[in-house]
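Module 6 notes. Inverse folding takes a fixed backbone as the condition and produces residue identities as the prediction. Think of it as a translation problem where the source language is geometry and the target language is the twenty amino acids. Below is one complete input and output pair. Work through it position by position during the lab.
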């Protein structure tokens, strides 16, 4: 049966694309996976109908040969790359074939959690110094909250508990963060400063508002990102005391003289 594309029927295009995969074993066990990508660049995954992290999906497939770097399916022209792989890649292949890759990943995750607890304050300080935007401001920004936007369960969190909220996160999640901030009560026009790779030579800094934050996802995707929202996100206002400005009259010999024309 031939299916007609939606645009040929006059229907509006969908705002997402979805792929579903169902795996079954010889004993009747079933694993159902689904992934959706939205027009704004955000994505979500399901395992057996339950919202999950991308890492959970990868972990479910590890040891089966179907995960990332698995050898159950080898594409045309990839045999030589397997044979000529370096030692580190061959070790990963052996761990996958022996069913050890899941335990290796769990060990790496545990080490990453220890580092992640110390990263938010360090990254926030580096971003504030690089952009010359202090997190606290006299009169309007006295409280600061530092947090990792992504929880250990893979859920994106955002709140409004301080004058300045600082989130350490992946740049590709900025569109989702925008929706979370609006739901938390941040005004749509609140200033947002986004700095990725803070303190590095490839540092990137952009300014946005909460409602337009999703537009920065493509710019900062794949980069560790610090997002500052609220009082500490805007540039520092420089006040000029007009009364302290001294007006100096030019010397008499430097004043321009009016030329007179002779008849």
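Target side of the pair, the amino acids:
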């Amino acid at each position: 049966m031939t299916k007609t594309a939606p645009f040929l029927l006059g229907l509006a295009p969908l705002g997402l694309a979805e792929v579903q995969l169902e795996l079954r074993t010889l004993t009747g066990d079933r694993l159902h996976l689904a992934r959706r990508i939205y027009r704004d660049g955000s994505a979500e995954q399901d395992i057996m109908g339950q919202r999950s992290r991308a890492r959970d999906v990868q972990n479910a497939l590890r040891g089966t040969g179907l995960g990332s770097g698995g050898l159950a399916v080898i594409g045309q022209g990839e045999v030589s790359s397997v044979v000529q792989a370096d030692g580190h890649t061959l070790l990963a292949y052996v761990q996958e074939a022996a069913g050890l890759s899941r335990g290796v990943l769990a060990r790496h995750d545990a080490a990453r959690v220890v580092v992640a607890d110390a990263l938010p304050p360090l990254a926030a300080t580096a971003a504030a110094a690089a952009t010359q935007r202090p997190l606290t401001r006299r009169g309007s920004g006295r409280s600061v909250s530092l947090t990792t936007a992504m929880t250990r369960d893979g859920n994106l969190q955002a709140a409004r508990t301080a004058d300045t909220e600082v989130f350490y996160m992946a740049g590709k999640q900025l569109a989702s963060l925008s929706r979370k901030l609006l739901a938390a009560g941040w005004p749509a026009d609140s200033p947002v400063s986004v700095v990725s790779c803070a303190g590095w030579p490839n540092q990137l800094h952009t300014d946005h508002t909460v409602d337009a934050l999703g537009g920065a996802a493509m710019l900062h995707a794949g980069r560790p990102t610090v997002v500052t929202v609220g009082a500490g996100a805007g540039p520092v206002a420089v006040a000029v005391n007009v009364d302290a400005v001294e007006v100096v009259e030019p010397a008499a010999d430097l004043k321009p003289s009016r030329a007179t024309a002779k008849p």
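Reference fact for the lab report: Residues 42 and 173 are 6 Å apart (CA to CA).
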